From TrEMBL:
Family recorded in the similarity comment: Belongs to the PhoH family. In the N-terminal section; belongs to the PINc/VapC protein family.
InterPro entries referenced in this protein's UniProt entry, alphabetically: P-loop_NTPase, PhoH, PhoH2-like, PIN-like_dom_sf, PIN_dom
Gene3D superfamilies reported for this sequence: 5'-nuclease, P-loop containing nucleotide triphosphate hydrolases
Listed GO CC annotations: cytosol
Gene Ontology MF, one: ATP binding
Segments forming domain PIN: 8-150
Pfam families the record matches: PhoH (PF02562), PIN_4 (PF13638)
Keywords assigned: ATP-binding, Nucleotide-binding
This protein's name: Phosphate starvation protein PhoH
Organism encoding this protein: Thiomicrospira aerophila AL3
Length: 471
């Protein structure tokens, strides 16, 4: 096998291609190598309806297009990745490397303690053999398996995680949805600021500072006791138009008996109650009120205002995309065990003060059951939802591709709410920087009809708050 003089040679582990078939085109000018063991593992994982199986089949189709009748000699010399249809790869890549397969047996010695019959260890042997055969090349194993990277380091093979699916370098850089203003903010902008009132709201137009990174529907809050809080309604060049927020902490603005308990919840409720905002993402740890706020605002706009005709709630079941299991009943009954958060919050929202009769309680329950539907993620593909208020809970366990599938189900008049905590990811190979929730927060921050809020302050109970701090 004759390799090119490109600086690096990447060996792709199976889990990289299972996670992202387009990884084949994400290594710029560098060469790729696929061991025979990887092809065997792809073949054994191609059956089924899971997301992994679909990705494997897509990978197989791409590999077939790349090979496209190439002779054995051409495979030995490496196949040009640029030959594939340009819509199948990144448009901004002007030159790609070559793809090599294991056309001849590659072997190397592993420590006696490592069994050589395991697939992962066979890939390690291939990596060590390539490293020995081409010492001038930077040979790197790319894998999302942490244990695989540890073993590679132990045998002297350089390895890396697959970085291309990362939305951000660090989760701490994720957009929060609000900004705390400087103490002298109004003094700085008073000279060129315009202010007016319309329909009981106050508006301000000002020139943004050169170092400002403001986005549509971002909230601005004052650091002092003035209580000033506003939302950026419009950005036109250097000019930003601000609108004061509704104070949902006031009893006069209660939503289904719920008031905002802190500034973050108040900003979130402004997003949830705004029909001009089609997509809202709420991120925060347990107990910050994400589900309760989303449900309360959904019930207000569905049952009272009539903006939406139905609330649909779904969540990622672990393992996501697989059969729910042999639970009895309909789709909703099968999903009920996963919907404890919905039931708990409905109890809070429909709690009576002891003056309502059992008949009134039963009537309220029946009404809610008719207007709140529980759906499984497994059956969302191909559907279109019109005038629905859709709540996606536990969104941190959804991949970017699955998130795209869900959000593109929205029809006219539909609002989608994504809830989650990127600190509680259970899906294999997803991290804080690669989660679908992180993906949509970052991609929607520039859109005029999307909004995001990061909730930090727990409001569940003093016991829960103390436990989260000390345990």
């Amino acid at each position: 096998m004759t390799l090119t003089n490109q600086p690096r040679l990447f060996i792709l582990d199976t889990n990289v291609l299972m996670h992202d078939p387009m990884a084949l085109f994400n290594f710029d000018e560098h060469d790729l190598f696929i061991p025979m063991t990887v092809l065997e593992e792809l073949d054994s994982a191609k059956k089924g309806m899971s997301e992994v199986a679909r990705n494997v089949r897509e990978t197989n189709r791409l590999l077939d297009q790349i090979i496209n009748g190439s002779s054995f000699e051409m495979l030995k010399a490496g196949l040009e990745l640029e030959n594939i249809h340009p819509t199948k790869r990144k448009a901004d890549v002007s030159h790609l490397g070559k793809l090599f397969f294991e056309t001849a047996p590659l072997d190397a010695d592993l420590p006696v303690a490592i069994p050589s019959h395991k697939a992962d260890n066979q890939i390690l042997k291939v990596g060590l053999a390539l490293q020995a055969e081409f010492p001038e090349r930077n040979v790197t194993l790319v894998t999302k398996d942490i244990n695989m990277r540890i073993k590679a380091s132990a045998v002297g093979l350089h390895s890396e995680d697959y970085y291309n699916d990362r939305v951000l370098e660090d989760a701490d850089l994720l957009y929060t949805g609000y900004e705390v203003l400087a103490e002298n903010f109004f003094e700085q902008h008073s000279e060129h600021m315009k202010a007016w009132q319309s329909e009981g709201r106050s508006y301000y137009e000002l020139k943004m500072a050169p170092n400002s990174h403001w986005y549509p529907n971002q909230c601005l809050i004052s650091p002092n006791d003035s209580g000033f809080s506003a939302i950026i309604r419009k950005i036109d060049g250097e000019l930003a138009t601000l609108e004061t927020l509704t104070d949902y902490s006031s009893k006069t603005h209660a939503v289904w008996g719920i008031n905002a308990r802190n500034t973050e919840q108040n900003m979130a409720m402004n997003f949830l109650m705004d029909p001009d905002i089609d997509f809202v993402s709420l991120l925060g740890p347990a107990g910050t009120g994400k589900t309760l706020l989303a449900l309360a605002c959904g019930l207000e706009q569905t049952l009272d205002s009539g903006i939406y005709n139905e609330i649909i709630m779904t969540r990622a079941t672990i393992p996501i995309g697989e059969d729910i299991g042999f639970l009895p009943g309909t789709e909703e009954e099968k999903m009920t065990p996963w919907m404890g958060a919905l039931m708990d919050n409905l109890e809070v929202l429909t709690a009576s003060d002891g003056q309502h009769t059992d008949w009134e309680k039963q009537s309220t329950s029946e009404l809610l059951n008719k207007r709140i539907k529980i759906k499984s993620l497994n059956f969302m593909r191909g559907r279109t939802f019109m005038k629905k208020y859709i709540i996606i809970d536990e969104a941190q366990n959804i991949t970017p591709k699955q998130m795209k599938t869900l959000i593109t189900r929205a029809g006219a008049g539909t609002k989608i709410i994504c809830l989650g905590n990127i600190g509680q990811i259970d899906t294999p190979y997803l991290t804080e920087t690669t989660s679908g929730l992180t993906y949509v927060v970052d991609r929607f921050k520039d859109w005029a009809h999307g909004a995001h809020m990061t909730l930090k302050q727990g409001e569940r109970s003093r016991l829960a708050e103390f436990a989260s701090e000390v345990l």
